[in-house]
Amino acid sequence: MTILEDALNKNITDDFRQLAKDEKVGINTIFKTVSKGRAVIVNRINTKPLGIGFPFRTKINVNIGTSASLANVDTELKKIKIAEKFGADTISDLSMGGNIDLIRKKILDISTVPITTVPIYQTLIEAKTIEDITDELIFNIIEKHLKDGISSLVIHSGFTLEDLKSMKGKRMMGMVSKGGSYTAAYMVNKGVENPFLKNFDYLLDMFNNYDAVLNLGNAMRSGCIHDKVDKFQLSEIKFNSRLAKRANKKGVQVIIESLGGHVLAKDLIKYLKLCKKISNNRPLFVSGPIPTDFAPGYDHIAAAIGAAFASGFGADYLCAITPAEHLCLPSIDDVKKGLIACRIAAHVGDSFKFGLNYLFNDDYHLSNYRFKKNWQKQFECSIDPTEPQKKHPISEDVCSMCGKYCALSISQKLFNNKPSTKF
Ligand code: SF4
Q1: Whose CA is nearest to atom 4 of ligand 1?
Q2: Domain ends where: 354, 369, 395?
Q3: Residues 285, 385: one domain?
Q4: Which of 60, 98, 163, 390 has the most CB atoms within 10 Å of its CB?
Q5: Quick one: which of 258, 348, 334, 335 has its CA closest to 305?
Q6: Are 329 and 408 in a shared domain?
Q7: Average pLDDT over residues 182-193
Q8: Which domain holds residue 176?
Q9: Domain membership flag for residue 422
């Protein structure tokens, strides 16, 4: 039985028990939300199950992987370690350079969180040219990833050949999803229908067999805020929502990816709500969204602003954006910066979703220690304990910002009924 079938049949497995404990949610609530497709449980052998969707906290994915022009496997493996250390919930291996099969196996060996892949990337590398891609090659690679133990695979199935023909000349940035553009180029080049759509039942049988999560990709996301949320994006989420129903009927869990890329801030909340409604509240994965285009080098900050509102108003799963976005393959430090920015965004988003009490353990304790000027405890509670120590060594009691005129010190005296004007 798949996890979805277990939820439908109310079979209490170790995964459900563990998730209920980790997320402090009742097992019956988990059965209900998973069986309705509103949440998924991402599984991987010998790791903890991961809940994505309502009512779980917002989860974060970190992208790593070699590129066609930079294929240093050791660097990519170090990125995994730093991502796991700073709280990534999942890792996506987007490798397109070097021995991709071997890299994937090394990633599976070294990592402890669920791994996602986008099999059309490796398909293009193996085919070498778009012209040489075949349906058979696409599905062989999907099967290979599933066999290796990949937990979730991204498939760009939400558009047709007709959509691509009518899209011509309608957008400034065209199609910025890599997987979407490879799939689209294959379709247009050969004049064939979307390969995932054509073979969707076969695809579902494969996913069911390995109990992997189907991630319906966001091929139609916009690449700049002037390419507004358009009929192609809305058509994709409607299309993917119908496919998700078919998948659930075959026991396959689904995450829907939408509204990623660049989205004008004033449109964000409206369309997030619409996406959740159209998809019947399925788990929503959002890459970014970046609400302004003018911050290259700082896109992790721009994306975190978008992601805070995205997770607050519907997104369940965020993809961290690094400062290298649009510029180059991220360094290890870029991955860390992107992840920390995204974790702050998810934390703020969860305060919209769950309120102040949810943040009690983190924010309350930190503020308490901050007021007492207990630097060590304050840093231990923070998102990255190493960073604040670069500014304020724990051994130093006085903070150089206000020195002896510290407002917190004065407040402690004032509100401990010991008013004093002596410094
Ligand atoms: S010195 Fe100023 S900035 Fe530093 S802890 Fe006190 S009030 Fe805050």
Answers
A1: 399
A2: 354
A3: no
A4: 60
A5: 348
A6: no
A7: 97
A8: 40-354
A9: no
Question: Is 89 domain-assigned?
Answer: yes
Answer yes or no: is 5 within a domain. Answer: no
Q: Is the pLDDT of residue 359 over 70?
A: no
Count up the domains in the chain and report the number. Answer: 2
Task: Please indicate, yes or no, whether the overall pTM of this predicted structure exceeds 0.90.
Answer: yes
Contact 372, 379 (CB under 8 A): no
Does the residue 346 lie in any domain?
yes
Mean pLDDT of 176-195: 97
| Protein residue with its CA nearest to atom 3 in ligand 1 | 401
343 and 223 in a single domain? The answer is yes
Tell me, using a 6 A CB cutoff, whether residue 406 lines ligand 1: yes
Ligand 1: which atom is nearest the Cα of residue 405? 1
398 lines ligand 1 (CB under 6 A): no
> Is 410 near ligand 1, meaning CB less than 6 Å away?
no
Using CA atoms, how far residue 32 sits from 8, 11, 25, 212, in Å, is 8, 12, 11, 20
Q: 127-137 pLDDT, tens per residue?
A: 999 999 999 99
Same domain, 345 and 388: no
Mean pLDDT of 264-269: 95
Cβ–ligand 1 distance for 359 under 6 Å, the answer no
CA distance 52 to 50: 7
Buried b / exposed e along 69-107 (16+ C-beta atoms within 10 A): eebebebbbbbbebbbebbbbbbbbbbbbbebeebbebb
| pLDDT score recorded for residue 416 | 72
pLDDT at 82 over 90: yes
The answer to whether residues 143 and 279 belong to one domain is yes
Structure tokens at 18: 């563990």
CA distance 116 to 17: 24
Q: Are 248 and 189 in contact (CB under 8 A)?
A: no
Confidence of residue 394 (pLDDT cuts 50, 70, 90): confident
Domain check: are 377 and 349 in the same one? Answer: no
From the list 63, 147, 82, 76, the residue with the least C-alpha distance to 106 is 76
The answer to whether 51 touches 39, Cβ cutoff 8 Å, is yes
CB 108 near ligand 1, within 6 Å:
no
Report d(CA 68, CA 213) in Å as an integer.
Answer: 27
pLDDT for 423: 47
Do 301 and 369 reside in the same domain of the chain? no
